[in-house]
Design goal:
By secondary structure, the protein is mainly β. The chain has one domain: Jelly Rolls. It is built from 2 helices and 9 strands, in the order E-E-E-H-H-E-E-E-E-E-E. The chain has a 6-stranded antiparallel β-sheet, with no helix packed on it. A hairpin with a 2-residue loop joins strand 1 and strand 2. 28% of the residues are buried.
Amino acid sequence: MQQIKKNFSAPDEIRPIQKGKVEVLNMAPDLPVMRVTFEPGWKWSECVKPVAKTESCQVPHLVYVVSGRIAIRMDDGQEIEYGPGDVGLIPPGHDAWVVGDEPYVNIDYQGGAVYAKPER
């Protein structure tokens, strides 16, 4: 394996979504890293569900929160809020929404292959 350097200023793929965007760096085959930016008022069930076509988000995430706050509610009702500096492992089966009036930004090391990707 060789050393690879990429930068989110030139992502390999951009997936626009309502009230946000998903930027993907393909670091190697089967190793995408994504940065998500969600604006205040973003909610998965309103902004991504139409693309995902599932009742809740079925993508697992391993995230590092850069800025802003987000609440995650699992299908079983468990709810956790994440903020700057937090690292979270979020299993499939959840809804999420931005908390407050600041954009939410995270780096996701697990969900980039399929998150908010339109069907082909």
